[in-house]
Specification:
Layout (H helix, E strand, L loop, with lengths): L1 H12 L12 H11 L2 H15 L5 H15 L3 H14 L4 H13 L3 H14 L4 H13 L3 H14 L4 H14 L5
Helix pairs in contact: 1-6, 1-8, 2-3, 4-5, 5-6, 6-7, 7-8, 8-9, 9-10
Organism: Amphiplicatus metriothermophilus
Protein name: Tetratricopeptide repeat-containing protein
Keywords: Repeat, Signal, TPR repeat
Length: about 180
């Protein structure tokens, strides 16, 4: 689980700001490309999606967000969380702020706060496949295999190329085989 949390944080922080947000019309085309494209271009497409998601449309929020990323990279989780508190306070419609704060809270072992942030991120951007994977891992860690399987499946609807989600869903499907899913 610890290794997954590190990977989840890495995915959520890998994007540099671009000039859009989760409402950017380019996202529809990128998701279509991701869902119908090949695995070779999937990584590039995911990167472009993450770049769009990482822009809050506010210079102030972007600076705070980047400082939170730097703090997270330096292992200063409490500072990253405090900065992200300001990010979501200033930009309550910025889904990536909640997604990153959720990842930070997972690192701080604040599961309830992480789930609340991830849920808010999904309300704002239902296509947030990394958030769905993180929630699936939390569900799995809590022994909720059916719900975890369903969450992995929802993540794969948006990014069918995510190997981690595919492996986990396949494993859970085998475990749950013969049981009502």
């Amino acid at each position: 689980m610890r290794a997954f949390l590190f990977c989840a944080c890495a995915l959520l922080v890998s994007a540099a700001p671009a000039r859009a947000d989760q409402t950017d019309p380019r996202l529809d085309a990128l998701f279509e490309e991701l869902r119908s494209g090949d695995a070779l271009s999937a990584e590039e497409t995911v990167g472009r999606i993450l770049e769009i998601w990482a822009d809050s449309q506010s210079d102030t929020v972007d600076i705070l967000y980047m400082r939170a990323l730097e703090s997270l990279d330096a292992g200063r989780f409490e500072l990253a969380e405090a900065l992200l508190d300001h990010v979501v306070g200033l930009a309550p419609s910025f889904a990536q702020g909640y997604a990153l704060r959720g990842a930070v809270r997972l690192s701080l072992e604040e599961q309830a706060g992480a789930v609340a942030d991830f849920s808010r991120a999904l309300e704002l951007e239902p296509r947030q496949f990394e958030v769905r994977i993180a929630l699936a891992e939390i569900l799995l860690g809590n022994g909720e295999k059916r719900d975890a399987y369903e969450m992995f499946q929802k993540a794969l609807e948006w990014n069918p190329h995510d190997e981690h989600a595919r492996r986990r869903a396949r494993s859970l499907r085998r475990e749950l085989e013969g049981q009502e899913i």
